[in-house]
Every structure is written in C-alpha cells, then in structure tokens.
Amino acid sequence: MNCLSICNAPNFQSWTKMAESYDNLTSSVKIAMVGKYVGLSDSYLSVVKALLHACVACSLRSSVEWVAASDLDDESARLTPQAHATAWETIKSCSCILVPGGFGDRGVPGMILAAKYARENKVPYLGICLGMQISVIEFARSALGMERANSEEFDPETPYPVVIFMPEGSRTHMGSTMRLGSRRTFFQDLNCISSKLYGNSSFVDERHRHRYEVNPDFVERLESAGLKFVGSDESGKRMEVLELPNHPYYIGVQFHPEFKSRPGKPSALFLGLILAATGKLQAHLDKA
Ligand SMILES: NC(=O)CC[C@H](N)C(=O)O
Question: Which segments constitute the Glutamine amidotransferase domain (predicted)?
C-alpha cells in the first residue's frame, strides 16, 4: 500500500518557530534545583523539561543550577566546607528554588534548609511531592517550635509526625501502597495563586506518585501559624496544595505537575514559578 499518498506532509511550522525563537533568546533565568540525585540529571528529566516549557513561554532560556542537597547541611559545613560554601553561593545566585520529588532520607536536612532560606528570604519556591513535605516539616519546626517534626518516612519515632503514611485503600486504584496516577484536587478558596494560575479553576487533575502525606491532625496548627492548605482531595483529608500568604511565591504540591507539562502548554505552577522569579507574576494574574 502506498501510505505516502494518503498522508499529509507533516506540519512542523509551530515547532520550527518555537525552536528558532528559543535559539534567539538572550536572557535566562537561574533556577536552583535542590535534589538528591543531582549527578544524574536524567532522574529529574520531566522537571527539567517542565522548567524549559515555562521559560520558553516567558521568552527566557532555562538555566538549571544543580545543588546537591547534602552539600547544604551542617555536616557538610564541617566535613566538606568548600562544597558547602559553593552550594550556598549557588542557591543565593538563583532567582528561584525548586525541591523535586524523591524517596529516602539522604539530603533531607539540606532540602529543609533550602526551603527555610526560600521562605525567610522571599525567594520563589516550588516544592513537588517530597518538596511539599519538606516545606511542611520546615514550617512546623520553625514556626511552631516543633524541633523534631518530621515525616514518618525519615524518623518513625518523631514526636511530631507532620507527614505520615496514609494508604489509599481505593476500590478503583488497586495495587501496592503507592498512591499513583491521576487524582482530582479541589481548591478550597479560589482566591489563591494556584487556582488563579490554573485559570481560576475550582479543581485540577494531576498525577501522583507517593506514599506519605501531610498529617491531617496537624493542619489546624500549621494553618494557625500562617501556612495555608488551599487544595485537597474530595475527602478534604489529603492536603494537595499549600501556599504561604505574604510571600511572592511559595507553593508546595503533593502531585507532580511536571508530568502534564508540554512544549507550548507549560504547567501552570512551573509558569508561576518562572513568572515570580522574574517579577512578572502579579501582572500575569491581573490579566487572568
Ligand atoms: N514522589 C515523591 O516525592 C514521594 C515523596 C515521599 N517519599 C512519599 O513517598 O510520599
């Protein structure tokens, strides 16, 4: 069969235009990516691509600065002071900070310090899955004085288990203990940055990949100290999105927005991060 005669010639026009305009970009934005596997940048490929999609939408080149979380902590200050100093210099030279997803406790103290730095210095921050759990641990320790607050994943004996194992027990999503795949998040208050970025939507479907979650028993105390949980699942018990009011952009999400980001259709929260990093978020929200 002669397939060529029934196929239209592929139309690469919009791709070519996008690639050409990217090649001509001169300004860039520096993003600190604080993770465990920074030697293996492919581990975070979808996050890197989502950053690229958001940067292109803002006519910027994406400049990802890799920071090994373990270089940021106090132990590194003692044992590898040069690496520690360089890691902090890198963080401070960036316009925003991203803590991506991850498993296991390596690098967690450094990620907590990065989240604290972003919160206190009003540097735009996006915490994805583990990155959201990190911001909850950091906030509980700093704002509520719960010094040993932790996730049960990292310290099963913690007196303040602000992040706990919460299996789903769903009839429709069988399998192991991992909460996987698309789930709906409902925004509690449409007046939050995340809902506005998602086009003033009252809900959003994003993909998940986690076992631990914010402990609902601590939500009230965390909120009374200023953290806002603006999105949750349909039961209202699983916290999906947090924001810090009075901060230019401090957002944590239990889901992985990077998985649905596409060239020409960047993820709303990555776009928000880059807009905030370049001082353009408010203008964007005002237009929406
Ligand atoms: N994908 C992730 O970041 C997972 C976070 C955490 N380790 C959990 O299992 O909940």
Answer: 41-274
